[in-house]
UniProtKB/TrEMBL annotation:
This is NADH-ubiquinone oxidoreductase-F iron-sulfur binding region domain-containing protein. Coiled coil: none annotated. SUPFAM superfamilies: Nqo1C-terminal domain-like. It comes from the Bacteria. Gene3D superfamilies: NADH-ubiquinone oxidoreductase 51kDa subunit, iron-sulphur binding domain. Residues 64-146 form the NADH-ubiquinone oxidoreductase 51kDa subunit iron-sulphur binding domain. Pfam families: NADH_4Fe-4S. InterPro entries: Nuop51_4Fe4S-bd, Nuop51_4Fe4S-bd_sf.
Length: 166
């Protein structure tokens, strides 16, 4: 649907019971639902203009891992960040999304994001890193729960649409 700039996000999306909102599509950012509820539509952060609310019963880490895998597979593979960085980041995030010890994965993701950003032949890696960094921040509590072997999600059904590799 089309909506004018300045319209509160809470008027567009049902945020009651939401964990977070993906703002700007797959190269956008995750924002905690309470914070998103205070925002109005603004071109400075809206990116592709896509908004998606993540229900509280879904795992933001699992959703992000699926999207990162998709983004890594969609790269042209013509530069180092796309050929090596994005697949490595996607694989590491998949590990982070699985309940259990993660070792240095969180630190590795932060470091690799810095190595990828600004070094691609296009902006695909930069947008992907934006999503990673926002997920690491927005879902920090869930990352800690996963590290202790527990996921708070009760519904494992994928939410965000991505083409699955055949």
């Amino acid at each position: 649907m089309e909506a004018p700039y300045g319209l509160p996000i809470a008027r567009l999306l049902p945020l009651e019971g939401a964990r977070a909102v993906l703002v700007g599509g797959y190269h956008g950012t995750w924002i905690p639902a309470p914070e998103a509820g205070q925002l109005a539509l603004d071109a400075s952060y809206l990116g592709a203009g896509v908004l998606a609310a993540l229900p509280a019963d879904r795992c933001g880490l699992a959703e992000t891992a699926r999207v990162l895998r998709y983004l890594a597979l969609q790269s042209a593979g013509q530069c180092g960040p796309c050929l090596n960085g994005l697949p490595r980041i996607a694989a590491a995030f998949r590990t982070l999304a699985a309940p259990g010890p993660h070792g240095t994965v969180r630190a590795d993701l932060a470091r690799w994001s810095g190595l990828v950003e600004g070094r691609g032949a296009c902006h695909h890696p930069d947008g992907t890193v934006r999503l990673v960094r926002s997920a690491l921040t927005t879902f920090a509590t869930e990352i800690d729960a996963h590290a202790h072997g527990h996921c708070t999600a009760t519904d494992r059904t994928p939410l965000l649409p991505v083409l699955e590799e055949s």
